[in-house]
Amino acid sequence: MTPQQLAKQYSDLFVSKKRNNGDKFLCLDDSVMDTDPLYILVRECHIGMSPNDWSYEKIHEILCAIEDTDGENMYDIDIEPDVYNSCLLDWVQSNSDRLALCEQVTLESDHINGFIELIMQAQATEIDLIKQIIFNHLTA
Questions:
Q1: Strand partners, 16
Q2: DSSP letter at 27?
Q3: What crossing angle do the helices spanning 115-138 and 37-45 adopt, rounded to 10°?
Q4: pLDDT for residue 41
Q5: What are the C-alpha distances in Å from 104 to residues 66, 99, 118?
Q6: How many domains does the chain have?
Q7: Partners of 138 in beta bridges
Q8: pLDDT category, 110, cuts 50, 70, 90?
Q9: Which domain does 105 fall in, by range?
Q10: Per-residue pLDDT, 28
């Protein structure tokens, strides 16, 4: 099975559900057991954080982008960080590990134009980490 076929198989196992307040969210289909490779991949992609909607959405977005590529082009997928300040602020405040990503970006970057750019770069760092975990899993 190619990485693209496996990405398609995995992305098809994400389902949209609705919370009591009407908010929609993505999660894994009830048929996915905690010993399934997809379940294990999703847990790894949370990078030690508790399950959260943002990570599920990005994992699904990356899998869908990979399934639409051919061959080596899967490494060229471009998943952009959020552009709205409110989304970036929600993301960074959702877990203290994300503050640590901001600190890492601050230490590694030569120039950052403000707080929002810092958060955007930290979010891009998390996206890159998730992509790498997925690439490693699909090509193992």
A1: 26
A2: E
A3: 160
A4: 98
A5: 28, 9, 10
A6: 1
A7: none
A8: confident
A9: 3-138
A10: 98
The token pair at 28 is: 């894994």
Angle CA 123–56–21, to nearest 5: 105
Q: Give the tokens for residue 51.
A: 């399950």
Provide the percentage of residues in the chain whose pLDDT is more than 90. Answer: 90
Contact residues for 3 (Cβ-Cβ < 8 A; gap 6+): 66, 74, 135, 138, 139
Residue at 94: amino acid letter: S
Tell me the β-bridge partners of 24.
18
- Residue 12 confidence class, pLDDT cut points 50, 70, 90: very high
Residues shown for the chain: 140
Angle ∠(75,16,91) on CA atoms, nearest 5: 60
This prediction has a pTM of: 0.94
